[in-house]
Structure formats: structure tokens, C-alpha cells
């Protein structure tokens, strides 16, 4: 494999994506000198980069099954690294949330609720559990069955969390409905792939 391509595979891909996200987040935060509005922009930016990385990782296997080609094979091969990059993106989301809370406690209280702590907290618990079990050794330690259930439950929970977090902003900003399109597409792709897999043993 040519050297430049190796940067787009495995842990190097993770390093490339997470360092790029970190750099862009710092750049956005520094745009007007680390004002509250800049920090809020980082929260929104990382919510969107997380959406993209999450959708790619969670749809990878279904896409590779439905349209086998070089790109979908790359996606499936690298879904773990895209998933861990999603976690890095959400770690920046968390740091920016903390900065927002410290810099503007009144604005922060107005932007959050008990529900955002409960649902967001469960979301972060899943992100930590999914990331912790995304290494060969830890994945082997939990066992294939538990790993599958954890990653399935975590994935669908996060899909739901994205739907709610973007969806609740639609009444004020109708264009936010556009963010639901990739989420619904991922769900549909997974359902179609599941139905196809269930049919294959019957055909054989
Ligand atoms: C305790 C955990 C969390 C807290 C306290 C929190 C807090 C926030 C806050 C304050 C904002 C609004 C920023 C602003 O209006 O300036 C926001 C936006 C958002 N968050 Fe989080 N969040 C949490 C976890 C999560 C998780 C787990 C997800 C997704 C899996 C998520 C997805 C989003 C999305 C989609 C937005 C909207 C971004 C936009 O406007 O484009 N959050 N969050």
C-alpha cells in the first residue's frame, strides 16, 4: 500500500481525524478571542462532526453489504477508527460544554435542562463504554456476544440521542430537519441489511 494511503487506515486515520478536529475546534474558539459565542460554535461544530463520523461508522457494515465496492470496503474496515474518532469529537463537545458552563453560567442554564443531563449523560456513558471496548484486548475480554449487544444498544441509543438533540431545535430553526435525513437513512440502511441477512439462510 502506498505510504500516503496508510494515513487513511486504522489508528493513523483516527490520529489524522482527531487532530484535524482539535485544530479546527481551537481555530473556531479563537476566532473572536475565545468568547462565549465562539465556544458555543465549537459545541455546534463538534455535534455536527460527531453526526458525520457516527453515521459513517454505524452504517458501514450495511453499506458494504448492500453496495460492495472499494469505498464501502474501506468504510467497513475502518469503522472502528471512525467510531473512536466520533468519541474524540464528542470529547471536544464535552470540553466546550464545560467551558460554556464556566464562562456563562446563566446562558448555560438556559441552554440545558434536567433532561439534557439525563439523556446526554447516558449518551456519554455509552460513548465511554463503546470506546473502552474498541481495542482488540478489551473487546476479547468482554466476549463477542456482550460486545455485540453493547455496540448495538449503544449505537441505537446514540442514533436516538442525535434525533432528539437536533429534532428539538426544528421548531425554532426548520432547517435543522436536514440533520435528521442522514440519521433516518442510516436506520433504513441497517433495517434493509438486516432483512437481507435474515433472508440469505432461507435462500441457501
Ligand atoms: C450531559 C451531556 C451533554 C450536555 C450537557 C450537552 C450540552 C449541549 C449544549 C449546551 C448544547 C447547545 C449549545 C448552544 O446552543 O450553544 C448542545 C448541543 C448539541 N448537542 Fe450536546 N450535550 C450533551 C451530550 C450530547 C450527546 C451525547 C449528544 C449526541 C449523541 C449531543 C448532541 C448535541 C447536538 C446534536 C447539539 C445541537 C448542535 C447544533 O445546534 O447544531 N450532546 N449540547
UniProtKB/TrEMBL annotation:
The chain crosses the membrane at residues 12-30, 50-69, 81-102, 114-135, 147-167, 173-193. The keyword tRNA-binding does not apply. Keywords: Membrane, Transmembrane, Transmembrane helix. It comes from the Bacteria. This is DMSO/TMAO reductase YedYZ, heme-binding membrane subunit. It comes from Bradyrhizobium archetypum. The lineage of its organism: Bacteria, Pseudomonadati, Pseudomonadota, Alphaproteobacteria, Hyphomicrobiales.
